[in-house]
Description:
70% of the residues lie in helices and 0% in strands. The protein has 14 helices and no strands. The protein has helices at residues 2-29, 34-42, 71-81, 87-99, 113-148, 153-167, 170-181, 205-243, 246-253, 258-276, 278-288, 290-296, 302-311, 315-343. It is globular.
Amino acid sequence: xxxxxxxxxxxxxxxxxxxxxxxxxxxxxxxxxxxxxxxxxxxxxxxxxxxxxxxxxxxxxxxxxxxxxxxxxxxxxxxxxxxxxxxxxxxxxxxxxxxxxxxxxxxxxxxxxxxxxxxxxxxxxxxxxxxxxxxxxxxxxxxxxxxxxxxxxxxxxxxxxxxxxxxxxxxxxxxxxxxxxxxxxxxxxxxxxxxxxxxxxxxxxxxxxxxxxxxxxxxxxxxxxxxxxxxxxxxxxxxxxxxxxxxxxxxxxxxxxxxxxxxxxxxxxxxxxxxxxxxxxxxxxxxxxxxxxxxxxxxxxxxxxxxxxxxxxxxxxxxxxxxxxxxxxxxxxxxxxxxxxxxxxxxxxxxxxx
Length: 354
């Protein structure tokens, strides 16, 4: 186990390196970089309108974006953003800084990338952890119940509800929640902005906890509605597959209770497929699903920060967020593999070669 764990941890380093290098090269080739953004602002075009290369087309200041500006000013702008160096030197500098865990400084936010990530991380962690926890607390018992009651009226109507939840996008459900519960057209029970209230610091400890959870109700519900459907169906199918196996028939023939058969024998084997989906579920909730939810509920998290950085070509923030997302994904995948041994001790990672 320790040898396998050591190999996997060591493999994270070249994997991170390859991902950072590939994305560095891709991003550098995209039009409308920070130099073009700065030039466009000087010329009065506005920085966020050039994502596709409208007024800012030519990298290096030789095209329309640099007309009418002093070449010395353009060179000063390039030097400010580090684009006066060749591509390979910029890549080497980036990798050297990352080896020291120095993610650099934001081009446009006037702060260190590490400080920005630390500042935005509580929002994304709050959304991701609560949404994942609630999703699993709902999906696994519901999937088991549906497997036990397969074909019953409960299975039919719950499947209908699951299909509706799966078909409705999270952002659309979020808008529906706002309309119904946040003062849109009906009741005004929940806030739709921020993670805490303006008077959070003046509240008691219990009041702070309640205020924090109160603000999370709608965004977490919007994230859960789409995620629990897939996991519920996966849990149900896993249980149905295991229930039909010979060892279950043998256990029942020995006189074991149905509860003992399900939770003493079937549960561990059925949960292997569910555990296999944990890494992708976590990554999807943390980084894919949270962007629109953060935007709709005006939550200043990593997803929203990464999107804004990509639009404004704030490369240090883009690469810093990418580095964090990749590292987190690799570690979650490793933890998911190790969880197999808790469910099935027969799995021997020491016999694996990678």
